[in-house]
Amino acid sequence: MEKVSFLSMAAMAFCAVMSIAVPIILAIVLRKKYRADWLPFVVGYVVMFLFAFVLEKGTNSLILSTPAGRFIQSNVFLFGLFGGFMAALFEESGRALAFGTILRKNDRMVNALMYGAGHGGMEFMMILGVTSINNLICAGIINSGQQASVLAQLLPEQAEKLSTAFEVMVTVPPGIFLLGLAERCMALALQLALSCLVFLAVQRRQFRPFFIAFMAHALVDAAAGILSGLQVPELLIECVILVMTGLVWLVVRAEGIKAKNREQR
């Protein structure tokens, strides 16, 4: 088997570093330029981990292990919609709970952005960071010629999947790994927008901004899952997500203007 190129490994390492650096740099900018509080950033990190990577993941595992869950997984559209709905349910509920309790006194919009930086930052690290580190480990195995011995220690199904991953890793261009970084940056931008909407919902005690955030989150995640399941080219998927994220930000702007107009009356 061919070896993983130096450029590919450099791209993996760069993505691993940026998965931590991007959210922190964003938080520092918000702190230095707009005097945002650090508490929302920390709370965002914790809430994302608990609600998405513990509660949502555990619930999904239980549901998908049932006959109904296996039926859902057999249909790319149902599976995409299920994933989008569950992500919106847990993440937006966690966001609303945070803004309504521990962050109740952090009542400036910039703190909603700070929360989004933490919330999205945890996702950034857990998805791109962990994936990049795993890719680097696999690349090291390939380049050291140890893939045969590693595959021999696995169950047949696991070995088949890992063997396919090894083959893909040596054939894809380095830019593909950087595409993951671009995707995570868009996801972070979406998390910032959703945080603003839920913040407005809690501050104004109105359900509409929360509902918009919930539906936007569900639809974006569902679209990504469905298009990926249909094997649509990754670049096209990212373009669709970019457009959807831009639309969400337009809604945030409109809702923000409405909030300011009400305050001025």
Characteristic terms for this protein:
265 residues, 86% helix, globular, mainly alpha
- Average pLDDT value? 92
User: What percent strand?
Assistant: under 5%
* Total of helices: 10
Low-confidence stretches: none
Q: C-alpha Rg, in Å?
A: 20 Å
Global structural class: mainly alpha
Instruction: Characterize the largest beta sheet: strand count, sense, and whether it forms a barrel.
Output: none
How many β-strand stretches? Answer: 0
* Number of domains as seen in the coordinates: 1
In whole angstroms, the N-to-C terminal distance is 70 Å
The helix/strand order is HHHHHHHHHH
Range of helix content: over 70%
The backbone outline, from C-alpha atoms, is: globular
Provide a descriptive summary of the structure in words:
The mean pLDDT is 92. The longest helix is centred in the middle third of the chain and has 35 residues, at 109-143. The chain is mostly helical. The radius of gyration is 20 Å and the shape is globular. The protein has one domain. It contains ten helices and no strands.
Blueprint (SSEs and pairs):
Blueprint: H1 6-34, H2 39-64, H3 67-73, H4 76-100, H5 109-143, H6 147-152, H7 156-171, H8 174-204, H9 207-229, H10 234-264
How would you summarize what this structure contains?
By secondary structure, this protein is an all-alpha fold. Helices cover 86% and strands 0% of the residues. Helix 1 (6-34) runs antiparallel to helix 5 (109-143) and helix 5 packs antiparallel against helix 8 (174-204).
